[in-house]
Amino acid sequence: MIRLDGADASRFAQAQFMGDVEALAPGHWQWNGWLTPKGRLVALFALLRAQPDQLLLLLADADPEGFVAELSRYVFRSKVRIAHETGLAVHGRFEAPATAAAAAFAGAVSPAGLELDFGGDGGPRTLAVSAAPAPERPEAAARWRAFDLAHGLPRLDPTQASQWTPQQLSLDRLRAYSVKKGCYPGQEIVARTHFLGQAKRGLVRLRAEAAIPVGPVCAPADPGRAVGSIVSAAGNEALAAMPLDATGPWLAAGVECTALPLLGGLAR
């Protein structure tokens, strides 16, 4: 968790992040992200407005210390403090939240903790943040990641950061970026791609009988020519950035894959 607080916290986040932070009401959260000046996604995160002058970011994959250090370079004279909240545990369960619903979260960082509705068409899920330790359960974590991918939520490892535009990752499905608000890093490229209809690639959900490796995706008839690339994988399912009009089957590093529809309901 990253905390942004201070009189300029909301204004600073609005100028840096790709989603419309100022449209977010206290007690609610949204998908959001930070882009490079060339419009490539550095990190995707859940952004919560805990108070009018306090924002919380839940990073699923990005290194928090590196994220804080890089973001802090742009504070200049803004009245905002950016800190990595250590000592907190994030854990999930495949059950409906007790109180949270859709974009409205429940609780506070302390003492009882936060509760977010992370469910979608694939079923209910709850994400909780508290000071209480959470036991590691690799099988449940793998199931959680597979749920993310099935709903079109890409999980970017360090090799995939700063490579993809929001449109290439179909982040419009999560309502994670805005083309109407003011300037932010990469905004010109995002807006131009949107308004000129230049988004030719998006996420395709793939499934195979074996584990899908990260790498190029090819047609079986032309295995030497890549038509897409695996963005993130979870066992025998993966998300690939590919032409929107592409049809399968496909080969990912020699593994034959078929396309499945992305599930909905995860937008906030």
Automatic annotation (TrEMBL):
<protein>
    <submittedName>
        <fullName>Folate-binding protein</fullName>
    </submittedName>
</protein>
<dbReference type="InterPro" id="IPR045179">
    <property type="entry name" value="YgfZ/GcvT"/>
</dbReference>
<dbReference type="InterPro" id="IPR017703">
    <property type="entry name" value="YgfZ/GCV_T_CS"/>
</dbReference>
